Amino acid sequence: MFRCSASCCEDSQASMKQVHQCIERCHVPLAQAQALVTSELEKFQDRLARCTMHCNDKAKDSIDAGSKELQVKQQLDSCVTKCVDDHMHLIPTMTKKMKEALLSIGK
User: Fold this and answer.
1) 3-state SS of the chain: helix, strand, coil percent to 5?
2) PANTHER family of this UniProt entry (predicted)?
3) DSSP character at residue 48
């Protein structure tokens, strides 16, 4: 991106507007890459948050049903740990997907 932008400035025949448009075109792939990574990470965080919310709901239901606090805390800890473990296994696939998408942006 920086080399591309620098080459835009080297064109002595270009008007200021043309240089600006050239630089904007140079920034497009970076903006697309940032948007892609942000979107994938947001989806991952949303999925993890939904899982932990499910754990919280189960814990509240257990408290309402009269379960003991220590038992509910252990159940909650176990549930959240499972959420994290399950989502840790998704990271390699997510990373591969992002790498493939980022490579296609560069082309």
Assistant:
1) 85, 0, 15
2) PROTEIN FAM136A
3) H
